[in-house]
Amino acid sequence: MFSGDAILMALFLVAVVNISRYVSTLKTLLVVMRDCDPLLYQQVDGRGFFSSQGNVNKQIRLFHYIRSQQYHKHHDELFMAKCDKVRKLFVLASTSLMVFLVSIFVVAYLGI
């Protein structure tokens, strides 16, 4: 039988790996975006995206751009592939994080 601590540690590691994959792919998307669509890069605050002075409204604009799949109208195949990968990794990372958070409460409630 597995202990609750081992389950939580495994789920935590999975969540951290998925979140780091998401952030890494998002950074590569911004690099590709800078080359193929400079106007969109400026609209989402590409230079300051990961800085402490980053504009949250512009970051949310990129989130809505990817969520609504507006990138399917773009001309660059690499850009569309990166956007699709960012979208899939966001879903995977957020799901794994939610599973981890729910499992904390389940382990605490059941006393495993």
From TrEMBL:
GO CC field: plasma membrane
Pfam families linked to this entry: UspB
Subcellular location: Cell inner membrane
Database matches in InterPro entries: Universal_stress_protein_B
Stretches of the chain forming a coiled coil according to its record: none
Domain of life: Bacteria
Keyword field contains Membrane: yes
Membrane spanning stretches: 6-24, 89-110
Keywords, comma-separated and alphabetical: Cell inner membrane, Cell membrane, Membrane, Transmembrane, Transmembrane helix
Membrane topology label: Multi-pass membrane protein
Family indicated by similarity: Belongs to the universal stress protein B family.
Protein name in UniProt: Universal stress protein B
Source organism per UniProt: Photobacterium halotolerans
